[in-house]
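retry 2 of 3: previous attempt timed out while embedding S-adenosylmethionine. Reduced batch size to 1 and resubmitted. Inputs unchanged:
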Amino acid sequence: MNTDDTMKFFSSTFSVVEDSNIGGEASRRIRSFVRREGRMTRAQRRAFVECWARFGVDAGAATLEPEWLFGRRAPLVLEIGFGDGESLVAMAMAHPEMDYLGIEVHRPGIGHVLLRAEALDLSNLRVMCADAVEVLRQLPDESLARIQIFFPDPWPKARHHKRRLIQPPFVKMLVPKLRWAGQLHVATDCEDYAHSILNVLRAVPELANVADGGGFASRPAYRPLTRFERRGRRLGHEVWDMLFARSQPEV
Ligand SMILES: C[S@@+](CC[C@H](N)C(=O)[O-])C[C@H]1O[C@@H](n2cnc3c(N)ncnc32)[C@H](O)[C@@H]1O
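retry 2 succeeded.
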């Protein structure tokens, strides 16, 4: 991509999210994010131009066939809202036997991951620059071994709770994308959001809580601390992990 193409890419990518048509109902959807761009470094801009063709996946209408994206068939992990992506990169490095697809709207974070993926020559990592709610339908059903959402924006004020990502309609979109026994892993450091998420997930007949005792889970060894989490820990925040598996609903 040259610089002009990059600018076209940014505007076309995000025109997709202006109006949504989820579940066949045209609506102006409340988004789970506010795009505060921050400044992209020169290196991050260069990464969009030079590394997108290798590590980037364009949002659009076409179905994304994992085997086509990665050139092989391997368990696929989807991470939504990876932030600066350091923990996603660490997981991709630690698990070469798995493939990782990250979706984020924060371009400096995406630029950062592109640079890291290039420097580490990671063949099992791809990123999308898009609103996850808009592009989920591009993934085939039963294609994901795990969906991970670490520290989704907490939107702590009651009047903003409607912006929270983990709500029943969104989970309803996620579940069919999991293969049987595939896992949905969410972590948050916001206590009332943690309880709300747990209740949302418990109410889904096709999801079974993997945690001993059916409550919150311990942090699995595969999940590194994320940037947002480390900041929360410095402020004394607790963390709640939730781990559910797709299962046959009981009849
Ligand atoms: C609080 S940050 C956490 C980032 C990272 N997971 C961490 O723990 O450091 C939440 C991230 O989710 C992203 N996000 C929110 N809604 C999203 C959506 N609908 N699609 C993709 N990314 C989203 C935001 O841009 C933000 O980077």
